[in-house]
Specification:
With 593 residues, the chain is of the alpha/beta class. It has a six-stranded mixed beta sheet. A four-stranded antiparallel beta sheet has the order 2-1-4-5, covered by helices on one side. Strand 1 and strand 2 form a beta hairpin. Helix 8 runs parallel beside helix 11. The protein is elongated, with a radius of gyration of 35 Å. The protein starts with a helix and ends with a helix. 36% of the residues are buried.
């Protein structure tokens, strides 16, 4: 990673820290207060020993010094406890904000962009990489301030007592951050490579976990195991590189701080035996002065040592921030939501003129095409696999950029407020996605305004009442619709769409994975609900389209035929060929039966 990019990432991280400035100030303030207690503790301890050893004072006369020493120890412990809490809150608040930024960006980019990377990659970005920033905000940033303030406070106290010791502190202190910075450059690069390896390993592992059944059935378990071992070995190597740099950094810091403390101890030792006679302003080196400064010597370097210890947190955060910033800066100008409000109407009409749908990187997926979806009419979109049907739907949903014209009720789609537009869409897909939660949770999706009567009515209209009554609305559903059959899950998806309350129905192969009985129930409920409403349905099944007002036939991104079922079935072309092939398949199936 070049220095310019590293500085840019450091700047971004520090900008995020402003969000939790209050907690950051609390952590630093408590750290400074802890150093004041430290000075009191060192002074009392040195004074007690001086009076007991040099002045031969009875220990009973020093009761208040012992009490003060106890209070200083307790006060310092409380400050450190409070500082840990404040640091954690600081990191927690910023991590929550960064995760929200990532989620908002994912929502803006939409599924067309998300599918470009494995699910494990997104999980690593959203969870592990954000989590690895905690120590940077909670420990490193407060320690940066304390590594300046605490040594400065100690120097202010030490110089009036012994200028030689103060000079030793002043001259040796810069060595610690100097070598820390030299080691840190290597640490940042090692962490960046480590996160890249972790993303690849996570994505690979998650994808293979999802396809475990297929891997076992095709006897590919041994080959995939070897591939996973290779990815794991790369990650192991990257991790060991990070640890090696971290241990090297700690060793260097410990060496220089120990050397500096030793120089201070040697100075006082030679002063006490009369070999050195300077630094004490002509009053001699007392036992109190020597003990006081020697107690403070390790504490003078401790903030710098802690900064070095937490420096790996900075390198880790910079490595994690690279992928996050790169993702957050993804250009979404073409898919960005507009600000125009959609007028409240009970019907939706959509018209496209010379519409060209593009991928996020600008490649043409569909078009140019022109069509109209009339108010209250049903339209079917048919065509072979790869014709561009899903891309066209994603453009209508606002997930893909386009050129040309695509208007909703006369308003250009890319100028509309996307959130308002999607509230008008009742969507049912071919793979019903039910989330981890109860049946009720999946029906309402958190909408507390929905009444019990409305929920029950949707359950009844979607032919879900039988199994919902059996299980109850609080029946738990695991990830990927676990606990229900595909047909039951699809009927719940239809009920969820009914409760959404939009004016435009968008159906993407709603019966593709269903058996005959479930297909009949789902289509019966959809036919009742979509009657008199603008509907666009993507399907490969042509026979049920006899009553559809309009059929659009898509091939290689172009509309090659357009009309109703009766007209298209009599014309030579793709629709007639698809219809003939479908009828032939059905006849063969009946003969086999």
């Amino acid at each position: 990673m070049d220095k310019k990019k590293q500085r840019s990432l450091n700047k971004w991280l520090k900008q995020q820290s402003k969000l939790a400035k209050r907690w950051l100030m609390v952590a630093v303030s408590l750290g400074v207060l802890s150093s004041v207690f430290l000075l009191v503790q060192a002074a009392l301890l040195a004074d007690i020993l001086h009076q007991l050893i040099i002045e031969k004072v009875d220990k009973n006369e020093l009761i208040w010094q012992f009490v003060g020493l106890g209070f200083s120890v307790v006060g310092r412990a409380l400050c450190n406890w409070g500082r840990e809490i404040a640091g954690y809150r600081c990191g927690e608040q910023i991590r929550t904000y960064i995760r929200q930024l990532i989620l908002d960006k994912l929502r803006e980019l939409g599924p067309a962009h998300i599918k470009g990377k494995p699910a494990g990659t997104w999980a690593t970005l959203l969870l592990e990489q954000v989590e690895d920033m905690q120590d940077f905000f909670a420990r490193y940033l407060p320690q940066m301030s304390l590594s300046v303030l605490v040594p400065f406070i100690i120097l202010v106290v030490v110089f009036p007592i012994n200028w030689a010791a103060g000079l030793i502190f002043l001259l040796t202190a810069p060595l610690v951050p100097l070598f820390m910075a030299l080691v840190g450059m290597k640490a940042a690069d090692a962490n960046r490579k480590n996160f890249k390896a972790l993303q690849r390993l996570s994505g690979h592992f998650y994808d293979r976990l999802q396809s475990m059944t297929t891997i076992r059935l095709f006897n590919r378990a041994d080959e995939e195991t070897e591939i996973l071992k290779g990815a794991s070995e790369v990650f192991r190597t990257r991790t060991m590189d990070v640890l090696r740099v971290a241990f090297l950094s700690s060793a260097v810091l410990e060496f220089f701080t120990s050397l500096s403390i030793a120089i201070t101890a040697v100075y006082f030792g030679f002063s006490y035996i009369g070999e050195l006679n300077f630094g004490h302003y002509g009053v001699g080196v007392t036992l109190f002065a020597g003990l006081f400064i020697l107690i403070l010597a390790p504490e003078f370097y401790q903030p710098l040592r802690d900064l070095g210890t937490f420096y790996h947190a900075k390198a880790q955060a910079v490595g994690a921030a690279e992928s996050i910033v790169e993702f957050l800066e993804t250009d979404i100008d073409l898919t960005q939501s507009g600000s125009t409000s959609l007028p409240k109407q009970n019907t939706i009409s959509i018209s496209a003129s010379d519409l060209v749908v593009k991928s996020p990187d600008g490649a043409i997926l569909v078009g140019p095409i022109s069509f109209d979806l009339s108010d209250g009419k049903s339209t079917a979109l048919v065509g072979p696999s790869g014709a561009g049907k899903t891309s066209l739907i994603n453009a209508i949903l606002g997930f893909l950029p386009y050129s040309g014209s695509l208007k909703v009720n006369g308003i250009e789609l890319n100028t509309l407020n996307t959130d308002e537009w999607r509230k008008q869409i009742n969507w049912v897909g071919q793979n019903p996605l039910l989330l981890h939660g109860s049946i009720l949770d999946n029906l309402t999706l958190g909408k507390s305004s929905l009444s019990e009567q409305a929920v029950n009515q949707a359950v009844m209209n979607s032919y879900s009442a039988k199994f919902v009554t059996k299980h109850g609305l609080n029946y738990p559903i695991s990830d990927r619709s676990g606990g229900l059959s595909v047909g039951q899950a699809q009927r719940l998806a239809v009920a969820r769409a009914m409760l959404h309350g939009g004016s435009f129905w968008l159906l993407d192969e709603p019966t593709a994975s269903l058996d005959a009985k479930s297909e009949q129930l789902v289509m019966s409920s959809l036919d009742k609900e979509t009657m008199g409403k603008t509907t666009l349905m993507v399907t490969h099944q042509l026979a049920p389209l006899k009553d559809t007002a309009q059929i659009l036939v898509l091939e290689k991104g172009k509309i090659v035929q357009q009309g109703d079922f009766a007209a298209l079935s009599k014309q030579q072309g793709l629709f007639a060929d698809m219809l003939s092939s479908s009828q032939q398949t059905n006849d063969e199936g009946n003969l086999d039966a």
